[in-house]
Each structure stands twice: as structure tokens, then as C-alpha cells.
Amino acid sequence: MKLRFAAIVTFSLRGLILFWVSTLFADDRSNIVLLLADDLGFSDLGSYGSEISTPNLDELARRGVRFSNYHTAASCAPTRAMLMSGVDSHRAGVANMPESIPPDQRGHAGYEGTLSKNVVTVATRLRDAGYHTYMTGKWHLGKTPELLPSARGFERTLAMADTGSDNWEQKPYLPIYSKANWFEDGAETRLPDDFYSSAYFVDKTIEYIDSNIADGKPFFAYVAFQAVHLPVQAPREYTNKYLGQYDDGWAELRKRRYEGAVDAGVVKDGIEMAVMPTTKDWSALTEDQQRYQSKRMAVYAGMIDAMDFHIGRLVSYLKANGEYENTIIIFASDNGAEPSDVFHTGQALVDFFFPLWMFTNNYNTDYETLGEKGSYSLIGPSFASSAASPFAWYKFFSGEGGMRVPLLIAGMGSPNDGGVVDAFTWVTDIVPTILDIAGVKNSDGVYQGRQVEQLTGRSLLPLLDGSSINVYADDEPVGYELGGNAALFKGAYKLTKNRGPIADGQWHLYQMNDDPGETRDLKKIEPVIFQTMMQDYERYVRENEVLPVGENYDQRKQVFYYGLQKRLGAVLPFLAGFLVLVVFLVIWRRSRATIQT
Q1: Looking at residue 502, which CATH number applies to its domain?
Q2: Do residue 519 and residue 597 come from a single domain?
Q3: Of 140, 229, 310, 508, which is the active-site residue?
Q4: Residue 473 lies inside a defined structural domain of this protein
Q5: Which of 436, 464, 492 is the last residue of a domain?
Q6: Whether residue 524 sits in one domain with residue 379
Q7: 549 domain-assigned
Q8: Domain of 368: which CATH number?
Q9: Residue by residue, what is the 3-state secondary structure of 318-336?
Q10: Are residues 568 and 460 part of one domain?
Q11: Is the distance from CB of 71 to CB of 82 less than 8 angstroms?
Q12: Are residues 235 and 207 in the same domain?
């Protein structure tokens, strides 16, 4: 009894001492939480005009500022490289997804497909400044030990290293991978049996934060959701909330989303919407086809709803532990909505073998269980246009639908809280904004005595505190290129080019204030502006060592070629050995026959 009493007293004294020490040395700098959705379209949140229920993100919008003119790269890895480094993707080593880099570019400077060692991540900078740093979710910036987030400044990590994976099980979602590559703290790991991606990422984030919450140090938590990347999957209770809501089809949804975005204040009224060449005629579908497509979109909505619910769990944890009021929360998407239809790629070999691969990996497309464990679903290009409404194009393309996405920043106590900022902003702006919030000075291209890439983004704090209406001057160009699709933003104008086979491969000039739907080409009306911006783009190409792509390059097809090369590379030695054995046996049998005769 005396020993137990002594132990209780010792434990109590220890707790009091720890509490006193943590209070004495408490760091009052803000915690920072960066939430990243995957392939979320511009109008997919309630606060951006959606019919989808996102109450927790909508509350962050009311507590913070929505950005209506925020842009990213049009596919995931280049955006993530810029989001982690604050440096243009070509200079950060990820000019394209590693799976999409054509052979003639692979290995060239900027085209490694993994985050360059010549950039310093925001996590490294914050860790050096005394922050705890945590990461959960999709990484896609390298999977070898020295490239994983555990080696790039993050203290605790749960990382999916590929373009994506199944949301219910530890298995790959495309045949280009032999397995789903999950890592925790740099070591390969197994997912739990009750895994669902959005839930587990938040579980792990809470676990990591909680492990150090008593020491009084601020934290940076990066949560990179798989919602709503392929395969689109959601628990049944979330999908059921949206059954029947999309029975009018994609064109009607695109119209309603535009009206919702106007009501939400993130888009001006009177915008003309482009008609996408890939949007099919809803009325030409049979009743069963319409019912199936409608449920696909319901699963997509359910997946967003589920992500929002789990974000709410993280917010509740922060509130319960007294950290919410001292936490800045940033939410964004990595690019526009995903249009790919892996069942109808137009590549005969893929379209033949993909169903076989699905069968061997226990995937199905059954209506009744669509989105649930074992199901493989997507929304395709027609509904992707609706998710990007009112803009043109979607993921992979340099149209606004591929590049303009939601951005929320909450917790700053800004005079603009609850409002909308319509200034042009770029993905590289996130890192300097976070560093400003944390009070970390820019190293001006030097880190620990060595030269590194300088930050190219701008802090958004002047927009948040109302001291400025823009962070880029009207004569200051911002260039972009990915897989031959390109853009240059300058003041109110945008220069853009999208390659075939469904785009025309020509340069166009648009005025973004009046025509963000990109319907009226001003190239011939404003030839001086067009030529000046073309010169600006050519300068961007030279300064960032942008390489041209071949005439027949197709980003999505290249993913298949990459996978074929990788998978064949693994089995070629066995095939070669087998062929050598067959040749040896043939020669041996012939020699035996010759001896016998």
C-alpha cells in the first residue's frame, strides 16, 4: 500500500512538473494544418457552390478566407513538389509525374520525377525553427528511403508513395504497380483491416499530434487525402445521401454548379461557359445507363462528404485539447477534377487487359455495391466538367478547370474572414505564407551553408490582412508547363495551350476578369499583348529548362507505357532464363537424337 501511494505521489509530482515546465517554456506560435484533397474540382465544396454537404469545411470558410483565383499544376506530383518547396516544379525536379515522363526527357534536369535535394521543404524549415512536423496520406514525390517524407523534414509520417491506391485495402489501383507502397516513418508498413483512407489519415494525424502535445511546441501537420482520386470509393451511408440527386445528368449539374458558385460569391454572374467536346449527350443514354452514371456521381459526392466528416474529427480533437484557436488551417486541392475513364481508354491493349487485371485483383463495378470495398468507380470526363464548373477542361489540361481549385485559409483573424479574395494566386505561394505565419525567415537561396533553389512564391498574408489587393503586379508573368500543355498568367490575361488529341494544340489568349470560362480568344484582337506574353513564356522556358514533348506524346498513355516497362522489367530476367532453358533443352534433345542415330 505504501509503495502504491508513493508511486501515485511520484506520478502526480511528475505530471505537475511537466505541466509547469511546458507552461513555462510554451511556444505561442500558431500550429499549422495543411489539408490537401486529391482531384477535387473548383465547385465541389458547399462554400464554392456545391450541393455536396461539407459543413466542416464550410465552417472553416466562414471562419476564414476563400480564394476564388487560386491555381495549381494540372496533375498531382508537380503540384505537390511546389506545395512542399515553394519552387517551380521544373526547378524542384518534378516537371511531370514520374509515371508520365517520356523516355527522351527522363533523367534531364528537372525531369527526375522526384523532389530535388536542391530544394528545402517547408517541413524542414519548420522543424529547424522548432516545430513538430507530421505528414499522413499521399506523398508521390519519391519512394526510396532518402526521398520519403521521413527524410524530407517530417518527424512522423504515414505515406502512400504512388499516384494513389485503393481506399479500403492495401492493394494497387492500377496494373502499373505490383503492390501498394505504404510507409510509416520510412519503413514499409501494413494497413489495418478496418482501413478507410480518410478515416485512417485523420486517426494517424491525431495520434502524431497527441504524442507531443504536452511539450508546448507548435506543430505543422500535412494531411494529403486520397479523396476523390481514382478509384472513387465511399462508405455506403455517405453514398446513399446522394442517390437520385444526379439523375438529371452532367449538363444540368454543370449549370447548377455555376449558379451555386455565383451565389457563393466565388464566380461573377454572366460568365459564359465553354461546351466541352468530351461531354456526352445525357439523353442518349438508356435509363439503366443514366441510373449507373448517377450513382457514380453519388459515390463521388459521398467520398467528399466522408472526407469532410473526418476533417471535422480533427477539428474536434483540436478544440478538445485547447489548440483550435491557435491553429491556422489551410485547405486546397492539388488539381482539377479527374476525367480519366480507365475502362475506355482508346488503347486496345489496355481496354482488353484492364478487366482481366480487375478480376485478378478482386475489383468489380456492380451497381449495388458501387464505391464500397472491392468496387472500382470513377466519374469520367462528363461529370468531371461539372465538378470543374463553370470552367473549361479538367485535370491534365491547362484550362481553368484543370488549374483553378478551392483554397481556404482559416484561423488568421483576418478582416476578410467569411469573404472571398479574387486576386490571382499560385501554388508556390503556400510555402512563403506558412513561413510567414510561423515567423520563419526566407533563407534567400542558402540553407546550412549551401546554395539551394530560392522560393518563387509570394506570401498571401497581405491579402489576408487586407493590406494589399494582390501579390503579383499586373506586369509580372507567372509561367507554367506540364507535358506540353502550358499557360502564362499576367495581370488579367492568360495565355494557354492544350495539346491533342481532343484539344487543338494552339495558343490562345483570354481575359480572365470577363472570361474565365475561356470562350473568347483575344489573340487576333490583342496582338501586342499576345506577342508580349509569348515572349514572356519563352523566357520562362529558357529560365526553367523546359523541354519540348514529342508530337505524339499523350500524358495518360505514357502512364501505361511506364507501367508496362516497369512490370516487364521485373519479369524479363525470368523470361530470358526460361528462353535460355528452352533453347538448351532443344539443343540437348537434338544432340541426343543425333547420337542415337
Answers
A1: 3.30.1120.10
A2: no
A3: 140
A4: no
A5: 464
A6: no
A7: no
A8: 3.40.720.10
A9: HHHCCCHHHEEEEEEECCC
A10: no
A11: no
A12: yes
CA distances from 453 to 315, 443, 445, 447 (A): 35, 10, 5, 9
> 267 with 154, same domain?
yes
Stated pTM of the model: 0.91
Do 464 and 471 meet the contact criterion of CB atoms below 8 Å apart?
A: no
End residue of a domain, out of 464, 499, 517 = 464
Tens of pLDDT along the chain (597 residues) come to 443 444 434 434 434 443 444 444 568 999 999 999 999 999 999 999 999 999 999 999 999 999 999 999 999 999 999 999 999 999 999 999 999 999 999 989 999 999 999 999 999 999 999 999 999 999 999 999 999 999 999 999 999 999 999 999 999 999 999 999 999 999 999 999 999 999 999 999 999 999 999 999 999 999 999 999 999 999 999 999 999 999 999 999 999 999 999 999 999 999 999 999 999 999 999 999 999 999 999 999 999 999 999 999 999 999 999 999 999 999 999 999 999 998 887 777 778 889 999 999 999 999 999 999 999 999 999 999 999 999 999 999 999 999 999 999 999 999 999 999 999 999 999 999 999 999 999 878 899 889 999 999 999 999 999 999 999 999 999 999 999 999 999 999 999 999 978 899 999 999 999 999 999 999 999 999 999 999 999 999 999 999 999 988 887 778 776 666 665 554 445 444 545 565 666 566 666 555 555
**Torsions phi, psi for 472 (to 5 deg):** -120, 130
Among candidate residues 71, 76, 90, 229, the one labeled active-site is 76
CA distance 64 to 402: 24
71 catalytic? Reply is no
Let me know if residue 470 belongs to a domain: no
The C-alpha cell of 383 is what? 461529370
| Residue 108 designated active-site | no
> Which of 557, 566, 560, 556 minimizes the C-alpha distance to 178?
566
C-alpha cell at 131: 516545430
573 shares a domain with 445 = no
Residue 1 lies in a domain: no
Q: Is the CB of residue 58 less than 8 Å from the CB of residue 77?
A: no
User: Could you tell me if 486 and 419 lie in one domain?
Assistant: no
CB 495 within 8 A of CB 488: yes
Statement to judge: residues 305 and 186 lie in one domain: yes
Structural domains in the chain (count): 3
User: Which range marks the domain in which residue 226 is found?
Assistant: 7-464
What are the CA-CA distances from residue 329 to residues 34, 98, 108, 401, 555 (Å)?
Answer: 6, 30, 37, 24, 33
